[in-house]
Amino acid sequence: MILNRTAAGCLLLAAGLALTACGAEEKPAKAKESAAAPAPAAKPVPAYKITSQQLEGGLPHIDIEVSSMENLRGIFEKVANDSKESGQHTIRIACSTGGTQGGKGKAAMLNLLAYGNYTPNIWNGDVKLAKGSGTFTEESGKKCPAA
Questions:
Q1: CB-based burial, 57-74: b 16+ in 10 Å, e otherwise
Q2: Which pTM value belongs to this model?
């Protein structure tokens, strides 16, 4: 029994010395320096004008006018995140040119470029619209400014 303990102790001592010796010879690997690619900059949100912001059926509807087709998704997300209203929002983005004026008995027609819906505060009231959430559709074949 004493022999087994002594053998086990010697074995542990030898293993410890071997590990210490190996560790003394090896130097920690130097971290390779690499030029990390910078994160792509978010596209700036171009100028826009909120032309209508009202409740319809108790739900917010926001109409926006722009003068170009530039970054419509960015405009949608900014307006969605900045809204203080709750409930399902409807956002329409139209070109400031190319629509029709409403006359007596006639409804105005927007030169609609994009539209979408989102519902903020889905979880606990503190969650903002995550990028890519909600629905967003760009109309194909539209131009702004209208020709």
A1: eeebbbbbbbeebebbbb
A2: 0.62
pLDDT in tens, the chain (147 residues): 454 555 555 445 555 544 445 444 555 455 444 455 555 667 889 999 999 999 988 888 999 999 999 999 999 988 988 888 877 889 999 999 887 666 676 666 789 999 998 876 554 444 555 554 688 899 998 889 866
Give the β-pairing of 109-118 and 89-100. Answer: antiparallel
Is residue 17 classed as helix, strand or coil in its secondary structure? helix
Q: Compute the 3-state secondary structure of the chain and give helix, strand, coil in percent, each to the nearest 5.
A: 25, 30, 50
72 to each of 53, 63, 109, 121, how far by Cα in Å? 18, 13, 19, 23
